[in-house]
Write a structure and sequence with these properties.
With about 500 residues, the chain is an alpha+beta fold. Helix content is about 50%, strand content about 5%. The longest helix is centred in the middle third of the chain and has 32 residues.
Length: about 500
């Protein structure tokens, strides 16, 4: 009898808790209705933004693209989503996108990313940090990405090319299909390692070179990492309490040691290089020179902060550029007429520069620009862009106020495939980006690097190394798609930066 009574009480408590939980979810899921924003009906407990891990069939970029298309079909300029209990403001109107990224940027300064510098020191980098800390860091790092600094680093970049060409030639001679993403990843790893750290990464000489291996590990999003990331991004206090970090511990250990050893060696031996690492060392020691145009406000960097900035430059620089070049080479291999036109431009421009690949030469390659821009349209390295509302914002021409703390999602992939902006969007057509066609489109219809004060700081560097890689490939070889490539391409579901199932394999023939 006593047991039955206890059991009955337990059941009653459980039923009450479940009822309260469901009621709380239903109340939270009325958020967008209360704020007069049209929204997709969420389901308990996952909301509308991200299906359960086991049910994911497509990546976050393609999911956002589908949601964008559905909102456009309903005539919505914006809409509401939920990621679990977290409301997300989803933007489809390009004027609204412009307002958020640029015109009314002061309301949307932060990205709303999870940062846990205690347990994951490499997470405290420029892409993630917020508020005044971000402003100070952005101001101090900007001088290293000017066109003048790019030109200065150009010869260092070119020193990484010979090993790259040896690998391509070896595969050609041995009639091996070329895993173009892997080869280009080795190239960009060596370039970033040299230009950022002043170190030789030896990605082509060592099968498991440490920089290359740790770069791969960072982008290998295992199931446990994704679950931790989902919990931390939606419940940051819980993530910090549990000590969740996004960077794998062995990757953190490797990069922290590399940075500490590099800084110690340079300072002990009075070595000064004109590279990214030197700028960070100067900030650490408050030694920025006046000609850089940087305000010396007395703030410095800790070793952890210095390592975090170096880390994001490395992982963002090698992966996004190698991905962009991979997709460009795939499309060029499929369309030999476009490949040949680009090759002709390369040869014509280089002939004007004595046959040498120079910084000025690649800046003259206008058709190259259109090819890369079209690649970035079809395969943006970051398919969705996030912001966070930092103070209440009245949406122009709407009876809507976006409340402080709400996350903002801008569906870059959806915008890039919108037929209103790009007719026949599945077709690879560089002519979309000639001067005439560009002038006909909204300025915010192409957002591979974001826009506004918080756009990609390394854009110039990424474009520079992508142009160099494509130039050397196409001036020496003709490429076709190898039968090992699975077509049509299928993107990996859980990749943070778009990656292809089965990889992209090409055949090379000497020009």
């Amino acid at each position: 009898m006593l047991f039955d009574s206890i059991l009955g009480n337990i059941v009653g408590v459980v039923v009450a808790l479940v009822t309260i939980t469901i009621a709380y979810f239903k109340w939270k899921y009325q958020f967008w209705k209360r704020h007069n924003v049209p929204y997709f009906e969420p389901t308990i407990p996952f909301g509308t933004s991200i299906p359960p891990f086991s049910k994911r069939k497509i990546g976050a970029g393609l999911l956002a693209k589908q949601q964008y298309e559905e909102m456009k079909a309903r005539g919505w300029k914006h809409g509401g989503l939920f990621t679990w209990l977290t409301p997300t403001y989803f933007v489809t109107d390009l004027d609204y996108v412009r307002n958020i990224l640029t015109k009314d940027f002061q309301h949307f300064v932060d990205r709303g990313m999870y940062v846990n510098e205690k347990d994951d020191p490499l997470s405290g980098h420029l892409f993630n940090i917020e508020g005044q800390k971000w402003r100070n860091m952005r101001m101090k790092l900007s001088p290293t990405f000017t066109s003048g600094k790019m030109k200065m680093m150009f010869n260092t970049l070119l020193e990484c090319v010979p090993s790259f060409l040896v690998k391509i030639e070896s595969d050609r001679v041995n009639k091996n299909p070329i895993d173009i993403k892997e080869v280009l990843g080795c190239l960009t790893t060596d370039i970033i390692g040299s230009c950022a750290f002043g170190l030789e990464c030896n990605s082509f000489k060592e099968e498991n070179a440490p920089f290359r291996e740790n770069g791969r590990k960072f982008f290998d999003f295992t199931k446990s990492r994704i679950i931790k990331s989902m919990i931390s991004s939606n419940f940051p206090a819980v993530g910090k309490f549990l000590g969740f970090g996004i960077t794998p511990p062995d990757v953190t250990e490797f990069f922290m040691k590399v940075v500490e050893d590099t800084v110690k060696y340079r300072e002990s031996n009075n070595i000064v290089r004109k590279d990214f690492m030197q700028l960070l060392i100067d900030i650490k020691n408050n030694k920025l020179v006046a000609e850089e145009g940087v305000k010396q406000d007395g703030t410095t960097l800790t070793m952890r902060e210095l390592a975090a900035q170096s880390f994001v430059f490395f992982v963002a620089g090698f992966e996004t550029s190698s991905t962009t070049m991979t997709f460009a080479m795939y499309e060029l291999a499929r369309q030999p007429e476009i490949q040949e036109r680009l090759r002709e431009e390369i040869n014509t421009v280089l002939a004007k520069h004595g046959g040498k690949v120079t910084y000025d030469a690649i800046q003259e390659m206008k058709y190259m620009d259109t090819v890369i821009n079209e690649t970035l349209r079809m395969y943006p390295p970051v398919p969705v862009l996030f912001r966070k509302c930092v103070k209440d914002y009245k949406v122009p021409d709407q009876d809507v106020v976006i409340k402080k703390g709400v996350k903002i999602l801008i569906p870059i992939l959806g915008i890039h495939y919108d037929k209103d902006h790009y007719p026949n969007p599945e077709k690879f057509d560089p002519e979309r980006f000639n001067d005439v066609n560009k002038s006909k489109r909204h300025n915010y219809a192409h957002l591979p690097f974001g826009e506004g004060p918080r756009n990609c700081i390394g854009m110039r560097f990424g474009l520079m190394q992508s142009k160099v890689g494509l130039t050397y490939l196409l001036k020496n070889y003709k490429f076709t798609v190898n039968k090992k490539t699975i077509q049509p391409l299928k993107l990996k579901v859980h990749a943070f930066i778009p990656a292809v199932e089965g990889d992209v394999w090409l055949d090379a023939e000497k020009v």
